[in-house]
Amino acid sequence: MSIFTYHLVKTSYITAIRAYFTPIKPKNTPGLIHAECMTAMTLGSPIYSSKRMLVRQIAVFAQWENETAIDNFLKQNRMGKILFRGWHTRLKFIRQWGKFSGFEFPSEDLPSFDSDSPVVAVTIARMKILQVPRFIKWGRPVEKLVRDHPGTTLSLASIRLPNTVSTFSIWRTQKEMTDMVHGHSKVPKPKRHIDAMKERDRKDFHFEFTTLRFKPISEYGEWNGKSNFIPNLTNVK
Prior knowledge:
alpha+beta, 8-stranded antiparallel beta barrel, 26% helix, globular
């Protein structure tokens, strides 16, 4: 089974811009199935805030044939060596909703997964440009919900202009994440996510959109001076 990774690294402006315009591709990266290279953003930040696009911070979401390919990339590839200085987690696919081209998602979901185990959620979409104002109106409240939720240990957004947007979040337990999705969390305005999904169903914001759920299997490095974002990781390997 293939392995997914999510990488975060803070680097120089020049390196970040070069990575943005010359992202890693399968044709010159052995074992890579697909990757999306994006600029990190702070969830819920104002649209015209300096935190909305953190140019020096690179986020890469990738799918690999196996872990050997990941190790070789981080040791031998120019971009891999840059990402190696940051933080990344390796992920086992659990479930998918929606569709998104490029990646090769398994046709079957993981049979069972403990609701009390940590889980990683990734959303990624290609936006309809004319729907961006609606997306911002409904999406920012959801960003704040995820950002401030006591069940998350790390959460952020990312973007690749002109129209690719993504979110990434680590949850202490799968139950806390699903409670948030269904509006059952004991937080202020708990139905922000489910209300946004109803609006999306009414009139879609995207050309392509998928929500993905993963089982974290390992974690490496530091992000913003911190590590060990995934609780009880030795229990879920």
